[in-house]
Design goal:
single chain; about 425 residues; alpha+beta; five-stranded antiparallel beta sheet
Length: about 425
């Protein structure tokens, strides 16, 4: 069999978080691996099926708005969970749009919260040979009034660390938030925020960390230098790992797929290679929950030769435009309704951002993601006017509109 040549302008691999949800909560035609203590409920499996469309929509929208020659690595699970925590604070049209975007419009808030809790507690136990960590946090300005019910839901169902911080001491607040991100990603994502604007009052964060050794490792001695086709006329040399063993694989109309299991097999990386007459972009566009389910059913085990380049990348993406395009624009507007977070303040989402890291080598995979949601006031007090530079003055009479005096003060002197 010929060696598989991996070429694509974009990483067309469904992300590890996506694979975590589908392979933990949706059984295929292989026996369940032994060793783990996580047995997802029927509700969790239904939840995964409903939300797979969200994962593929997310990938498609990022791919459409990202530069075509740039790598992509995203975490649907991290984003879904962070937005799920925020959803508990949304009301009205804002909540309706968010539920539809998250594919939760037919799932009650209570049921969704229960599944998030089950994933938080269960995924780390799914495979004792794989390290999986999930964490949530809320940092809010200490003089900002937050509804107790919202914080209680976040603590009870998302195990969220909740902290009121003095945002006016920006350096200290940033250090604490970034330290939380670093601590919960094994140092792989040390910085998620570099500033706090005066109208930002809350940050919701989800961190996801994954480290798994291949069930069947690649032999480092079989790794060799190989050409990688970036574009039609651009190549580079990569370190191509090789494996020739029994693996689950499928050959679809426009792509080939192979599963590389970790640990005892609960977690797997699924690699999708577009056909030579297609492209990674076309492959991404064709993926959806139905195609993914059909792929799982078409997988069969057999002797397969795999070539996979070693790679390490860091990725950062502001997701405002993607989420608006996916159906939740109101959350980012002055018409947003987050009255379940605060009844006394008008709030909107200022940004949703994701930072990710992934390293793939002969031993296995290490990956991390932090999703950060900034919440800001939609109406804030007027900015202070400090005349610490040249300024102009006018003295007028209101009834007539007459200007009595006017001047430019460049060098004021005090007596």
């Amino acid at each position: 069999m010929k060696k598989i040549s991996f070429f694509a302008r974009t990483l067309a691999i469904p992300t590890l978080a996506l694979v975590m949800i589908t392979n933990s909560c949706q059984r295929d035609n292989t026996p369940a691996p032994a060793g783990g203590t996580f047995t997802p409920s029927a509700g969790a499996r239904q939840f995964a099926v409903k939300t797979n469309d969200f994962s593929f929509d997310f990938l498609k929208n990022v791919n459409q708005l990202e530069k075509k020659d740039k790598n992509i690595f995203i975490s649907p699970l991290s984003l879904h969970m962070a937005l799920g925590m925020l959803l508990n604070g949304a009301n009205g049209k804002t909540a309706e749009e968010m539920r539809k975007t998250l594919k939760l419009d037919e799932v009650s808030a209570q049921d969704a919260n229960e599944v998030y809790k089950q994933l938080l507690e269960g995924l780390p136990k799914a495979d004792p040979k794989v390290t999986t960590k999930l964490a949530n946090a809320i940092f809010y300005r200490n003089d900002f009034s937050v509804e107790p019910d919202f914080l209680n839901l976040s603590r009870n169902y998302f195990s969220a660390q909740v902290a009121a911080e003095d945002f006016s001491n920006q350096a200290a607040a940033l250090a604490k938030i970034n330290r939380w991100a670093s601590d919960n990603t094994n140092g792989k994502i040390p910085t998620v925020l570099t500033e706090i604007t005066r109208d930002q009052v809350m940050f919701l964060l989800n961190a996801l960390y994954f480290k798994g050794d291949w069930k069947i490792p690649f032999d480092p001695k079989a790794t060799y230098d190989a050409p990688f086709q970036i574009t039609g006329d651009q190549q580079k040399t990569v370190k191509m790992m090789n494996l020739n063993t029994n693996l689950r694989r499928a050959y679809r109309q426009n792509y080939s797929a192979v599963e590389l299991p970790y640990g005892d097999g609960t977690y797997r990386m699924t690699v999708l290679l577009p056909a030579t007459n297609s492209s990674a972009d076309a492959l991404v566009q064709s993926l959806n929950a139905t195609e993914w389910a059909q792929l799982q059913q078409s997988m069969t085990e057999g002797k397969t030769m795999v070539g996979l380049p070693k790679f390490t990348l860091e990725y950062e993406k502001n997701l405002n435009d993607e989420l608006k395009a996916m159906g939740m624009p109101t959350a980012f507007s002055q018409f947003a309704d987050f009255s379940k977070i605060s009844k006394s303040n008008g709030l909107a989402v200022s940004f949703v951002k994701q930072n990710t890291f992934v390293a793939v080598d002969e031993k296995g995979t290490e990956a991390a993601a932090v999703t950060t949601i900034g919440v800001e006031l939609t109406s804030v007090g007027p900015a202070p006017i400090i005349c610490d530079r040249p300024f102009v003055v006018l003295i007028t009479e209101q009834q007539t509109g007459a200007v009595l005096f006017m001047g430019k003060i460049v060098n004021p002197e005090s007596k």
